[in-house]
Amino acid sequence: RKLFFDTHVLVCLLEENGFTTQQSEVIVSALVKIMNTNLDMIYKDMVTKVQQEIALQQVMSHIGGVKKDMIILEKSEFSALRSENEKIKLELQQIKKQVMDEITKVRADNKLNLNLEKSRVKELVSFGYFLLETSKHFKMHAQQDRALTQTDRKIDTEVADLKTMLESHKLDNIKYLAGSVFTCLTVALGFYRLWI
């Protein structure tokens, strides 16, 4: 080990100031032991350049593994989101088709009922019950119009509910996507800051 002072000069200095040669050498040897002990303790806490390079390589390999895991996780999350969006689209298309089928069925039933009522009214007119049956027919026709209006309102409200549900799903997907992007950016910035 290198000492950062000249022991012989220190012994001579101590002798000049009134110490004997033996006392001076004991003091210098005690100082050398103290310095060696301090250096040993300092060296225990220090790392060699080779050890530092090994630790840096290990950290870099861990970062590379984390990067790969993040890329795989990101791809799997986005594919899961896409598949969920496709499922929701298919479900909405099926619901829309069912609603349209129900609308056409209700319209066809109403047209059929109206045609039947018209033919019935014509028969009643031919038998001479024109005035009596006409008032009944108008009442029934008004009831059917009310029922048809209520059905149209129900259909409109269901379609509006489906539209709002679709918009909320879209917003949820956008929020999730934005959260994923910000999380990835945060992790990337963290790694960038570690490298710098």
Name a few traits of the molecule.
single chain, 196 residues, mainly alpha, 4 helices, rod-shaped
Task: Characterise the protein shown here.
The chain is an all-alpha fold and 196 residues long. It is built from 4 helices and no strands. Helix 1 (7-16) crosses helix 2 and helix 3 runs antiparallel to helix 4. The two termini are 35 Å apart. Belongs to the CCDC90 family. It is found in: Mitochondrion membrane. It comes from Fulmarus glacialis (Northern fulmar).
Q: What's the Cα radius of gyration?
A: 46 Å
Q: Which regions contain 5 or more consecutive residues with pLDDT less than 50?
A: none
Distance between the termini: 35 Å
Proportion of residues in β-strands: under 5%
Please, how many helices? 4
The profile of the biggest β sheet is:
none
Helix content estimate? over 70%
Give the overall average pLDDT: 83
What overall form do the CA principal axes indicate?
A: rod-shaped
Beta strands, count: 0
Succession of helices and strands: HHHH
Structural class: mainly alpha
